Each structure stands twice: as C-alpha cells, then as structure tokens.
Amino acid sequence: MEPLEQGELRTAILALAEKADFDMKDIFVIDGSKRSSHSNAFFTGFGPSKRICLFDTLISQQSTDEIVAVLGHEIGHYKKGHIYIGMVLSFLETFLMLYLLSIFISNPDLAAAFYVSEPSAYFGLIAFGMLLTPIQTVLGVVGNIISRMNEYSADKYGAELTGKCLFDTLISQQSTDEIVAVLGHEIGHYKKGHIYIGMVLSFLEIFLMLYLLSIFISNPDLAAAFYVSEPSAYFGLIAFGMLLTPIQTVLGVVGNIISRMNEYSADKYGAELTGKPKDLILSLKKLSKDNLSNLTPHPFSVFIGYSHPPVLMRVRALNDLESHDSTLV
C-alpha cells in the first residue's frame, strides 16, 4: 500500500472529498494486480483518520471521471450512515444469536424432546448448532435486502455529488459488435423463457422446503426413529436443520445443470440473432481474461458448482454452431 502520487487523479479525488465535506487522512494505492485483475475501491478508518484505498487495477482500467464517480458512490455510503447502520445490525445479530443460545442452553423442554434425561450446556450447544444454518440463511436474506437498498441510495448520492452516473466498464472494454453479441445472449434468456423458468423453480424450491418442514414438525415416526418418546416442534426443527444442507446441495446441483443448459441455449439464440458468433466468442474471451476465469476446471467441479459452462466449452459450442450453419459468420 503506497500513497497515491501527485497528479490529475489525486487532485480530482481531493476536490471531491472537499465538496462532500469528507475528512480523510490520505489516498493509497494497493497492488491488487499481483493477485488478480479484480478492481475495487474502499474506505478504512474513522473520523479524521479515514483513508481512501484504490486498487492499481482500478486506476489502470478506469478514467479519472469514472474513478471519481465510483468514489462518489462510496462516500454516499458514509454520508447516508450505511456504515453505522451495518455496525448496529451486526450488534443486533450478535445479540439475537446470544439470546437464542441462552434459550437452548440447559432448556428442559428441549432436552425432553430428545429424550435427554438431564438438560446440559453440551446438548444445548449441539442443538443450537443444528439450527444455526437456517437462522443465518434467514438473516442473510434480510441483510441482502438492506444492502441492496443502501447501494441504490449510495448510487443516487454519488450521481448527485459528481453530476455523473457510474460508468459501465463493459462499454469501455468491448467493441460495439461485441456488446451487441452479449446483449443478444441476454435477450436469448428472455426469449427462451429462462427468467420465468427460474422464478418457477424458486417457488418450487420454497414449496419443497416448506413441505419437508411440515413433514418433520411433530412427526411421530421420525421421533421414534431417534428414540424420542414424544414428537415436538423442537425436535422437528433440529432434524430438519440437520438435513437442510444436503438438501440444498442436491437442489443446487440440479439448479446449476439447468442454468448451464440455459446459457448454451442463450448463446445459440444470440449467435443466430446477430449472425456473428465470433463477436460473442471475442467478448467471452475478454471477460474471461479480465475475471481470470479458469478455462479448464475439473468436470466434477463444473458439475457440482458451476452455474455457467466454462468459457472454453462455450467457445467450442459456438464454433460448432458456426461450422454447421453457413449463414453465420
């Protein structure tokens, strides 16, 4: 981490900070290019000790106006109090977790539900651990909703502060034909109904989770399988929590298979729509280079965790499409 040298960029950032009445100690550059091509900017510190940190990749990839627009967005997070809101929410989440833990620790009703003769802290910790994942999932959804609201708010503040909207790096890094090819792919998702399919699958997943939960809650056969004399909601929730992760893993694999099929379908539609599969290939290669994507991941890794096919496979599919259709160039 080194201080940003004197020049146009430093002058523009200092002017922006003064306009926003944003006190800071200095501006630093991080050698992020040694690890990846990912670009980023962030603030650190409180009060007059605040510092602006820029990745060197951001400086090399963006113009001064674009970087200033990004920093206007980040200053918006500070001016709108999002940092303090995040801290308060973190404290509330910690308090909630400790409160729930206090309920589970040495709870006689919970112990009785599992046919445990004497409630203990050991058993309470195990039971709490089983329910931790679904609790964190719910809290994560709420946190993401608040985060998205904050991002819109920071975008608005940054645009009003700088008089410029955030710039799209896709426009600056791709040719017109390549951008058109990418948009042809995205239109393919709409025309092929992938958006609606995704919504239906999400509703089905929620329905399946609620259906399974209804089976687990107060199920006498399930309770008997674990030698629990009386079925209860306590035991049903914990049993469901134990199976939640493997169920989500299986559903995730199925969802990724469908998603990869949709990507191939959208690639085909986009290539046929524009008549230029080579432009989409060039765009995919550039995006892959910028994101340092793995071109040859292990097939099992792709099967388990990839929502998009590897770029190399998409390029091969587009080349095959071109070789079988003489109207494509």
Compact overview of the structure:
Helix content is 71%, strand content 5%. The protein contains 14 helices and 4 strands.
Features:
5% strand; single chain; 329 residues; mainly alpha; 14 helices; 4 strands; 4-stranded mixed β-sheet
What does it look like?
With 329 residues, this protein is mainly alpha-helical. The protein is 71% helix and 5% strand. It has 14 helices and four strands. A hairpin with a 6-residue loop joins β3 and β4. α9 packs antiparallel against α11 and α11 crosses α14.
Please outline the helices and strands:
Blueprint: E1 2-3, H1 8-19, E2 26-30, E3 41-44, E4 51-55, H2 56-61, H3 64-79, H4 82-104, H5 108-113, H6 121-162, H7 169-173, H8 176-191, H9 194-216, H10 220-225, H11 233-274, H12 277-290, H13 299-305, H14 311-324
Parallel strand pairs: 2-4
Antiparallel strand pairs: 1-2, 3-4
Task: Give me the number of helical elements.
Answer: 14
- Principal-axis shape equals flat
What's the mean pLDDT score?
A: 82
Strand residues, percent: under 5%
